[in-house]
Amino acid sequence: MYLEEVNVIFIEPCTADANKMRFKAAFSRNISEILPYLNAEIKIAQYNHRAENLTFNQGIKIITLSSETLSVAKIINETDAYEMCDYIKNLINDIYKKRDVIVPLFEMRKKPSVLDIYKYLPKTNCKRCGESTCVAFASKLIVGELQVQQCRSIHENKHDGKLDELKKILNC
Q1: Residues ≥6 apart with Cβ < 8 Å to 9
Q2: Domain boundary residue among 101, 125, 153?
Q3: Per-position b or e across 62-95, b if 16+ CB within 10 A of its CB
Q4: Distance of CA 40 to the CA centre of its chain
Q5: Claim to verify: residue 68 and residue 12 sit in the same structural domain
Q6: How many domains does the chain have?
Q7: Which domain holds residue 18?
Q8: Does 162 map to a domain?
Q9: Radius of gyration (C-alpha) of the chain in whole angstroms
Q10: 103-129 pLDDT, tens per residue?
C-alpha cells in the first residue's frame, strides 16, 4: 500500500460557509510524485506542479491535496471528515496501482466553463431540475451546487452520448 494513513489534524468551522466545517489532515508520506497522475485522472482538478498542490470539487466540497496534507472545506460534520480521509487514501492508492497505464499530466488544465457544460445538456429549459434554464443548471453544476443526476432530461435515450461526455468532463 502506497499511502498507509491520512490523519486529521484539526476540524473547525468553515470560513466559506458558516453552516459547514473544514478540516486539515496529514498524509503518512509525501505524495508529490502521485499528484500529476491524479491530475490526469481527475478531469476537473486544478493542478499547480511548482506549488505541488491539486484542487477539485466533489459536490459542494472543495478538496486540496498538497505533497504532505489534505484540506477540505464545506464538510457536513466530523464523520464526513473521516470518510473523506478514507476516500482520498483509497483514491491515491488506486492511482498509484494504475500509474503504469496513466500518462501523468504536469500542466494546469483549463477549468471547464459554463458553456462547455451547457453544450452537453439537452437545452430544453424544461425546469425539471429545479432551475429555470439549462444555462442556470450548468452554472450550478460546475461549482458543485447541483449533481448531473438532477437533470432528468439527459437520462432519456435521445441524449445518450451527452451524459457520458458530461460525466467525463465533470469526472463523475
Answers
A1: 23, 24, 25, 26, 69
A2: 101
A3: bbbbbbeebbbbbbeeeebbbebbeebbebbeeb
A4: 13
A5: yes
A6: 2
A7: 6-101
A8: yes
A9: 17
A10: 999 998 777 889 999 999 999 999 999
